[in-house]
From TrEMBL:
Pfam families: TonB_C. It comes from Aquimarina algiphila. Its main location: membrane. It comes from the Bacteria. It is found in: Cell inner membrane. This is Energy transducer TonB.
């Protein structure tokens, strides 16, 4: 019976780690050179990882809107958004933490507005790459 359980455990653990579900962190993807490619970064002089970081920063700044409800209530703080660029190049928000829910909603909206891109690749196989981004909301003066 113990052997049967051991064999089943080994079988199930290999299935749960199959390559279809590979998700690399941003750091690992950058080291291995398989980061997703933001639109027009393939024509940039920057390395794809640096171009991605720059475009993401610009995207957040350009799409940032302080929520009216948060302004009225005097809310501020930092929201951390964990998301992936999936194997089809689309954004999927995984987790949002910090600050008030009004600020969290705005952070989610900004991240979901990221354009579709070329996914990261492991060899020729597209994979998901995970990112964590802090977005700080400071009350306008």
């Amino acid at each position: 019976m113990k052997r049967l359980l051991l064999i089943l455990t080994i079988l199930f653990s290999t299935f749960s780690f199959s390559q279809d579900a590979i998700i690399l962190s941003q750091e690992n993807a950058n080291e291995k050179g398989i980061t997703p490619i933001w639109p027009k970064c393939d024509r940039s002089r920057l390395e794809p990882a640096n171009c991605f970081d720059q475009k993401l920063r610009n995207h957040i700044i350009q799409n940032f809107e302080y929520p009216d409800a948060a302004l009225n209530d005097g809310l501020s703080g930092t929201v951390t958004v964990e998301f992936i660029i999936n194997n089809k190049g689309k954004v999927e928000v995984l987790e949002v933490t910090g600050a008030h829910r009004y600020l969290q909603r705005e952070a989610i909206r900004i991240i979901r507005a990221i354009p579709k891109m070329q996914p990261g690749k492991w060899g020729n196989k597209p994979i998901a790459v995970a990112y964590t981004v802090p977005i700080t909301f400071r009350k306008p003066q």
